[in-house]
Amino acid sequence: MASAVYRNGLGDHFPPITTGWASPLTCSQIAAWLGYTEFIFLGIDTTQVGQAWDVEKGRTTFTRSIRSIKDSFARARAEIEKAGRTIIDCTPGGLINEEKILEYRDLQEVLRDGT
């Protein structure tokens, strides 16, 4: 017999969503499987500055990584919204929302009004 987690989540079989090496997408798959219905991201700026990027050049040497992350977020949005769930980004100036891959909402607004 399936546990309550399975009944409230997407089921025993959760179709894999590529992550493009982005841990927020990995975490969102687990959250969806556990039954969460709202996905609110904060801090996924993808500015290519920091420890994950080439410090000398200030950007990744593999631009396909950024393309893969953007494609993966677009697919995640489609799958999450198809399942009747909500996904938004509260990262000011983040690439994911600036390119309209995810809807941007101000974090204070979300905390005050909900999604």
Describe the structure using short key phrases.
3-stranded parallel beta sheet, mainly alpha, 5 helices
Description:
- The chain has five helices and three strands; from the N terminus they run ααβαβαβα.
- With 115 residues, the chain is mostly helical.
- The chain has one domain.
- Strands 1-2-3 form a three-stranded parallel sheet.
- β2, α4 and β3 form a beta-alpha-beta unit.
- The longest helix is centred in the middle third of the chain and has 20 residues.
- It is globular and about 40 Å long.
- The chain starts with a helix and ends with a helix.
Topology:
Elements: H1 4-8, H2 23-34, E1 38-41, H3 63-82, E2 86-89, H4 95-98, E3 103-104, H5 107-113
The number of domains: 1
- Uncertain residue segments: 1-8
The average pLDDT score comes to 75
What structural category arises from helix and sheet content? mainly alpha
What is the CA-CA span between the terminal residues?
Answer: 33 Å
Tertiary shape = globular
**Largest beta sheet, briefly?**
3 strands, parallel
Amount of helix: 40-55%
Q: In what order do the strands lie side by side in the largest sheet?
A: 1-2-3
Name the helix and strand elements from N-terminus to C-terminus, one letter apiece: HHEHEHEH
Give Rg in angstroms: 15 Å
* Count of extended strands: 3
The percent range for strand residues is 5-15%
Number of helices: 5
